[in-house]
């Protein structure tokens, strides 16, 4: 699909929604970007602010409203509306309020954008994605979550910083829940094609041993909490990560991303949405890769699925 003909709709003009809109404008992801929010004054102001910079970005139009019709005929809808995470509050604790918002908002958007791919970004993203699949009745390939795309970027950043290499040379994934039970897939991670578990430190750099890997894992899991304590919300990196997913859809990239999809067919993971490396293209979240897993990684994924399954049951999903 030609980007000049595409439309991206974003539900929610808060910190995350506006970060996605802003980064999408800069990257020229779509010809039209639409923001929907119940606060008409807020969404109008955000659109006006970004419109004043249109001279400096690839050709695009940006619009916004508190009326769902602004999303009409969108090719991709990114759902960011939800309760704000408070300091010390886990993502899973946000579930009840956010599921309620999804039930209230999603049907109306589906009416005006029936052919869109729906990307759920609101936390807890795995639970919300599962609920959105039930509410929408759409194929799981067309309703999926941002998952651990951001977490994997955090992991790559920390590995790169520790080893003294460019982050673009690190290939590694966080899998499972986007939250406290997520796990790094160390056994398949590489730096410049070198298996991470066989990495020889560069001169003057520390070893990437089990202690270092555990510290990095801990920092990835707790990164959002640290940012929320300091500034109240995470928005820039998730804005960039979400934009990258949208770009993979609209330009039919067949890009491998750890998005949150239904994990049916994998022993111990049935009946939940969680993240595994998946091919993303114009049809949405398509083929899930059969990534080699160590015994401990497989056990971690099953534990992650068990946590999510328990939360789903609590909310009748």
Automatic annotation (TrEMBL):
Residue ranges of domain Lactate/malate dehydrogenase N-terminal in the record: 6-145
Gene Ontology BP term (one): glycolytic process
Reactions mediated catalytically: (S)-lactate + NAD(+) = pyruvate + NADH + H(+)
Compartment(s) where it occurs, according to its Swiss-Prot or TrEMBL record: Cytoplasm
Lactate/malate dehydrogenase C-terminal domain span: 148-309
Pathway where this protein functions: Fermentation; pyruvate fermentation to lactate; (S)-lactate from pyruvate: step 1/1
E.C. numbers: 1.1.1.27
Family indicated by similarity: Belongs to the LDH/MDH superfamily. LDH family.
General function of this protein: Catalyzes the conversion of lactate to pyruvate.
Protein name: L-lactate dehydrogenase
Organism whose genome encodes this protein: Gordonia lacunae
């Amino acid at each position: 699909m030609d980007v000049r003909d595409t439309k991206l709709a974003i539900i929610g003009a808060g910190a995350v929604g506006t970060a996605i809109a802003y980064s999408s404008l800069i990257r020229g992801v779509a010809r039209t970007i639409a923001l929907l929010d119940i606060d008409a004054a807020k969404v109008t102001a955000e659109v006006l602010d970004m419109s004043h910079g249109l001279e400096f970005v690839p050709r695009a139009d940006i619009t916004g409203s508190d009326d769902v019709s602004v999303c009409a005929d969108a090719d991709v809808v990114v759902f960011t509306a939800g309760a704000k995470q408070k300091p010390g509050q886990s993502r899973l604790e946000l579930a009840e309020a956010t599921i309620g918002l999804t039930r209230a908002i999603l049907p109306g958007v589906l009416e005006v954008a029936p052919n869109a791919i729906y990307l759920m970004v609101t936390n807890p993203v795995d639970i919300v994605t599962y609920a959105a699949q039930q509410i929408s009745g759409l194929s799981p390939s067309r309703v999926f979550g941002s998952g651990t795309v951001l977490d994997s970027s955090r992991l790559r950043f920390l590995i790169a910083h520790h080893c003294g290499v460019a982050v673009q040379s690190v290939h590694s994934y966080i899998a499972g829940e986007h939250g406290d039970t997520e796990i790094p897939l160390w056994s398949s991670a590489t730096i410049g094609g070198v298996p991470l578990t066989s990495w020889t430190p560069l001169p003057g750099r520390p070893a990437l041993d089990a202690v270092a890997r555990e510290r990095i894992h801990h920092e990835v899991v707790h990164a959002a909490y640290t940012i929320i304590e300091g500034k109240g919300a995470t928005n820039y990196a998730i804005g960039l990560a979400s934009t990258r997913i949208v770009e993979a859809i609209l330009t039919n990239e067949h890009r491998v991303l750890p998005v949150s999809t239904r994990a049916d067919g994998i022993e111990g993971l049935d009946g939940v949405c969680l993240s595994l490396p998946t091919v993303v293209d114009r049809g949405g979240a398509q083929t899930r890769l059969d990534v080699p897993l160590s015994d401990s990684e497989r056990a971690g994924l099953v534990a992650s699925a068990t946590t999510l399954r328990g939360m789903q049951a609590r909310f009748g999903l």
